[in-house]
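Table S7 (text form). Paired inputs.
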Amino acid sequence: MGGQYPGRPWYVSVPAMLMSCVLVLPVFTWLRLRSGSVVPAVIGHAFISSVSVTMVKEFADPEAALDPLHMGLSGWPGWVVMAAFVAFLALTGRLRPASGDTA
């Protein structure tokens, strides 16, 4: 039920989580297509799931209230960055499989 956004009602946290997933999926797809392996996408998922959250906590003011909806890759600033990167990938044709791929 959108547990990545504690203190938020489900009707905010669930759409926020869906937005994060929809925006990161093309990045994982690109990693898979460009590498020919699932390993880069798995590492990317692990990074987003753990390291990116920890980094926000490490760089934030220890006294500040942390609100995941307003920071990191799972918040609106991350959505803007991911949307720009996905737009770049789409506009440059990098989301298309290489010729000869049948996956």
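Next pair, protein 2 of 2.
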Amino acid sequence: MAGEILSQAWQQLLALVIAAGVVMGSPGPATISVTAVGAAFGLRSSLRYASGVVIGTIAVLLVVAAGIVGMLASLPGLAPALTIASAAYILYLAIRIATAPPLAERESSAARPTFHGGFMLAIANPKAYVAIGAVMAGASSQAGGLGLPARLLVLAAMIVAIHVLWLLAGTAFACFLRNPLASRIINLVFAATLLLTTALAALP
């Protein structure tokens, strides 16, 4: 009996990790922004921003788990205000990425995306609520196995892992960004991708 319960728990853990990787790890405003910032500013200069996105996404996870999303959605004007604020910051970030100079010309004092900016983008990211809500709903529908605290810990760990991987993917492009032409092309592509994924995430 105990063996069956343990086996079921491991199966649910694997299913949860796979679902989180596919749904939460797919391209979206937060993940693409982390990749783009990593490519445009390098690993060290992107850590604060990426940390803000991670902490903000974990905050979304807790809000979804607590059922607060439905209550906040009922407040008139709040959802549109969050969408506008998120879109404005993403547009600003896309411009910053598109116009970032090559790494070789970048001064150490150059302005970089901040922890606060990453956190605000994460909590105003519409895809985060939909993706986390879908994964949580799928996990909750399974009888027995993992309890809520365990699911939250697993999903929080997945949020960290997903954004670290996207950040590393972005910084892998950094070696090309010392060439002015390559830097401009890569930054423009990432900026355009960021705007596109944001527009797709905002669609009903």
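The radius of gyration is 18 Å.
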